[in-house]
Amino acid sequence: MSLAAKFTHLLPPEAAHSAAMLGLDAYYALRMSWMIASDLKPNPQHEMGLTFDNPIGLAAGLDKNGDHIDALGALGFGFIEVGTVTPKPQDGNPKPRLFRLPEHQAIINRMGFNNKGLEHMVGRIKRRKYSGVLGVNIGKNATTPLENALDDYRQCLDAVHGYADYIVVNLSSPNTPNLRQLQFGEPLKHLVSSLREQCYRLDAINEKRVPLVVKIAPDMSHDDLLSVADTLMETSIDGIIATNTTIERDAVLGHPYAQEAGGLSGVPVRSRSTEVVTALYQHLKGELPIIGVGGIFDERSAAEKREAGASLLQLYTGFIYRGSDAISAAARGFKQANLSR
After folding, report:
1. Per-residue pLDDT for 295 more than 90?
2. Which residue among the candidates 173, 273, 311, 328 is catalytic per the annotation?
3. In angstroms, what CA-CA distances link 341 with 273, 290, 296, 314, 335?
4. Predicted confidence (pLDDT) per residue in 120-130, tens digit
5. Catalytic residue check, 173
6. Distance from chain centroid for Cα 85
């Protein structure tokens, strides 16, 4: 961990996040990002009709508003995913809502889709200089009744389609009440098929093909997982992100924060997320690209996701703890796994 990273980890988690983002912006503004960037050689990947400079991306949640796209892109990520964004700005859940578990290389968060809303994000995206692949993760406002969730997703899809390279439908955050109910059965089929049709119409209007992706939770039974996979295939989705954070706490029992509500990320979710990637890949027989995320910190954990069937990888907690070293390590692991396939 760099000296700057050690300093920010002395601060409360949300304050540390803000300080780190301001620091990245300063490096970028001073054209000094090369000092902290990962050392990556080009390794283009072609998925969903897009070309990624390399297979290692930044997961949603770190840059919720699109305020730091250029600074983050300069670190060497092959793609950046911003959000989750909701139609209207919202404060999210009461603080404290973010907890570090360094003994487990983990984080618990119950942020609750805190963001500045669609108008702000679209303005930021329009001004970006980053030329890599940009994904936008969309959600619903906490005050929107579940039966009206589709309206929020439609509004987000309509606003960001013209500026995103791919769009992620987030149905799997544990921090918006009842949101995960939309992952199953008829609600899933209705919501995704409706958004799929809308995306096709927008593709024609904006004269660009924008892949539509769904992000799923790790906390479902094997049968439910395969049912979700079948529904997503039936609705012609373009890809799956596996997985979001977990509500399980078995791996961190005994820690003072173990009983805090929210999603657990980092090393404790590594095995389960890999199991989900494996099950999806085997069931779908490689017909849908899978973006693997969850506990990727080093070469071995990245290689595991690739060997399980992931086409691309995303970092979040590993990047928080290790900085750009995690990007380089994940890229090496992905390449090593490719050689052994």
Report:
1. yes
2. 173
3. 20, 16, 19, 20, 10
4. 999 999 999 99
5. yes
6. 12
